[in-house]
């Protein structure tokens, strides 16, 4: 980071940075803040649709949007309209996606600890695929699946690949709670058991090696393990999961979905996989991260001996990623996006703990002060979806913008919403 103006490449595709103000989807961010209040999540619908189309066009039919990265009815419908399936990991995600009108035949059900009810709901709805994770689940399925109650499934395997990313979001290594190990024979045993189950059709294997990965090498390695492992199985599909990284701050470089997909196809060919095998993936972050911007109002600017704290009206409740993973973000003054940023502050939220930091060292123009609107780009993934009500802070509203129009897709939470569980 530096005092240079913020990089335009961190913004959604339709963003235009002016001397005074930023517009996204043809709408000025200041106008959005005035109309809908702050904190506010703004998503550029064109960016969302373009990323969905890119994934749908480059992988085969059945490629899915990982809804855990950002889920609401409007997002599920958008992904479906653009040709993607929707991957859900819990009954709660399944429920929202079904309510949104996405047909069950376009939903993929995950979970490392699916309850009997979650499996029953997924089966009753008729999901496209259920991804089987463990032997207890196989026992459970053997009581629920029959020729009269069939199920289409994939089996989740761990290829034993160490992805270069934060350990909390790494999943492909042997020591993990997800899936069946290829190397110790569990995956092979699981496949035999599932193939012997009447009514269950096993279409192939699924692996997910982690998230926020910048190097395609890890994915390639995973593909070659899977290729080797399934070469004689005659499966009709193979899913390499999600995990493609995105740039959050200046200096980071992430492969495009196109580059990712092409290198997966290449690796599949090199592994000797049949060319008609459906090659699938489940991107989440790569679809939604860059489409989103969070606008905040600055309430307080407080110099102390060591530094200056700038406090905004949200914080770790709408973006827990800096606290959880030490993730970096950048920020800009919504009024002055092209101005140099000599003012160095620690950007913090309004929560009652010192850890409530959004950006350790954020850069702003000298003019940014209490009352200013500031924003963080690349907040479309794992922000709203991991938002909490810590300190009874209501969750922000979410608006989609396109062609000069804004529409609220999730309204701002109220104190009444927060009180509704009291008995
Ligand atoms: N498929 C499976 C089976 C997954 O577990 C995940 C993410 C994805 C797909 C989508 O991964 P993506 O393309 O979004 O990287 N909360 C963390 C990320 C956790 C990812 C969990 N699984 C974060 O904020 O960085």
Describe this structure in words.
This protein has twelve helices and 21 strands. With 423 residues, it is an alpha/beta fold. The strands form three sheets. Strands 4, 14, 15, 16, 17, 18, 19, 20 and 21 form a nine-stranded mixed sheet that branches. Strands 5, 6, 7, 8, 9, 10, 11, 12 and 13 form a nine-stranded parallel sheet that branches. The protein has helices at 29-36, 45-58, 73-81, 91-99, 116-125, 135-144, 186-195, 216-230, 257-270, 285-288, 321-325, 415-419, and strands at 16-17, 22-24, 27-28, 40-44, 64-66, 85-88, 107-109, 129-132, 151-158, 180-181, 200-206, 237-239, 278-280, 292-303, 308-312, 332-333, 343-348, 357-364, 373-377, 397-402, 405-410. Bound molecules: ligand LLP. The site of ligand LLP has 22 residues, from α10 and α11.
